[in-house]
Design a protein that fits this description.
Structural class of chain A: alpha+beta
Number of strands of chain A: 3
Strand content of chain A: 15-25%
Low-confidence stretches of chain B: none
CATH architecture of chain B: Up-down Bundle
Helix content of chain B: 55-70%
Number of helices of chain B: 10
Shape of chain B: globular
CATH class of chain B: Mainly Alpha
Oligomer: heterodimer
Strand content of chain B: under 5%
Order of helices and strands of chain B: HHHHHHHHHH
Order of helices and strands of chain A: EEHEH
Radius of gyration of chain A: 26 Å
Largest interface: A-B, 19 and 19 residues
CATH superfamily of chain B: Ferritin, core subunit, four-helix bundle
CATH topology of chain B: Ferritin
Mean pLDDT of chain B: 94
Chain lengths: 126, 257
């Protein structure tokens, strides 16, 4: 069926015969990139999601609009998802006893008290 | 509306810039929902929105400082011959190669216009150009990234980008159409360096990216620019676009939004 309309919404992709082979050429398969954004200079980059892109440059370009168009953002990182090395889900048991090892928590230090006291003092001096 | 020749020239300059932004913003927004992939759809739509914002910024200066009507009225209620946009921005979106090439050629020129405005002797222009700098930087970054990507993505892709460039180039030269009586006044007052200088700077700016993409720039000296827009002569595509764009506004021009 031919349709000569210029409206792109009415153009249809002509699918080939379902039995024929689908050939995916080099470069046709895009990568997934994980996106990390930074809310202010010096802050950690935080994982916010992913984009689909043919190159790191375009991944960054896309990420800016997907994840950096609202609220505060000063920088973005992208990294190919396949380049991230992680543990298998079944190896989660390695971390199982963490909750018992409270002596490793950094919560016992009294430094926050000192910092708050110092801050209060600074305020008073002003 | 205008009281003296210099104000007339400033109104001319800001109106052509604003009209370019408004019309191209409207055109590019026609890709919303139809972009090649979701991420690009969002990015392109977002930049189209930015362009409407740029137009509003310029129309607002005109309204507040140069006695032009309210920005909405000015944007939507003029007759076709009073618009000063170039033909490049009027054409329908066509296919993505054309839309991207137009975006690339236009936004580099746009970036330079705002850079010049930042150094203008006319103070009213500086805050806006400073404000928009980062946005336009992203627009050109986006255009450059797509251009280099598509030019290295296989023979068909490369050939389409080259033919889009060949097609767009005379239209793009039309962005720099001169209206001497206006331009001379602006140049005398050091408000604006003039289209010829802008064109030279633009060619210098786009050339390295075209080289990186292995695209051949048509010879600027032997290409006849497609002019007319800056004098109020437009393509057949502008009037239908204006009708569509202002249809809702015209239902009740006094309505408060």
């Amino acid at each position: 069926m031919e349709n000569n309309s210029l409206d792109p919404r009415v153009n249809r992709l002509h699918l080939s015969d379902a039995a024929s082979l689908v050939i995916v050429n080099d470069g046709e398969n895009w990568n997934v990139y994980e996106v990390f954004h930074q809310e202010k200079r010096g802050a950690h980059h935080e994982h916010v999601g992913c984009v689909h892109a043919p190159s790191p440059q375009l991944a960054l370009v896309f990420a800016k609009e997907q994840f950096g168009r609202r609220k505060k953002c000063v920088n973005i990182w992208v990294v190919r998802s396949v380049d991230i090395l992680a543990f298998e889900v079944e190896d989660e048991d390695m971390f199982a006893n963490n909750l018992d090892k409270t002596y490793r928590d950094a919560s016992g230090f009294k430094v926050m008290e000192k910092i708050n006291k110092y801050k209060a003092q600074q305020r008073e001096e002003k | 509306m205008q009281t003296n020749p210099l104000q007339q020239a400033i109104t001319y300059l800001l109106t052509k810039m604003a009209d370019d932004a408004l019309i191209l913003g409207h055109r590019n927004s026609e890709w919303t929902g139809l972009g090649p992939i979701m991420e690009e759809d969002i990015a392109f739509s977002s930049m189209a929105q930015d362009k409407i914002g740029h137009a509003l910024g310029l129309y607002s200066i005109l309204h507040e400082t140069y006695h032009a009507p309210d920005p909405d009225q000015y944007a939507f209620l003029r007759e076709e011959k009073d618009y000063l946009c170039c033909h490049l921005v009027e054409l329908p979106i066509g296919e993505y190669d054309f839309s991207l090439m137009r975006h690339f050629l236009f936004d580099h020129a746009d970036a330079l216009r705002y850079e010049f405005m930042e150094k203008s002797s006319l103070e009213a222009l500086r805050p806006l150009s400073k404000k928009l700098k980062g946005e336009i930087k992203y627009h050109t970054l986006h255009a450059n990234a797509w251009l280099t990507q598509l030019c290295s993505a296989g023979d068909e892709s490369y050939a389409r980008m080259q033919s889009a460039l060949d097609y767009c180039f005379p239209l793009a030269l039309g962005m720099f159409e001169r209206r001497e009586e206006m331009e001379d006044r602006l140049m005398d007052e050091k408000i604006y360096p003039g289209e010829e200088q802008l064109k030279e700077a633009w060619l210098e700016r786009i050339y390295p990216i075209l080289v990186k993409s292995s695209l051949n720039l048509p010879d600027p000296v032997n290409t006849s620019p497609i002019n007319g827009g800056r004098h109020g002569y437009h393509t057949q595509h502008l009037q239908p676009l204006l009708n569509e764009m202002s249809a809702v506004f015209r239902l009740d021009p006094t309505a408060k939004w």
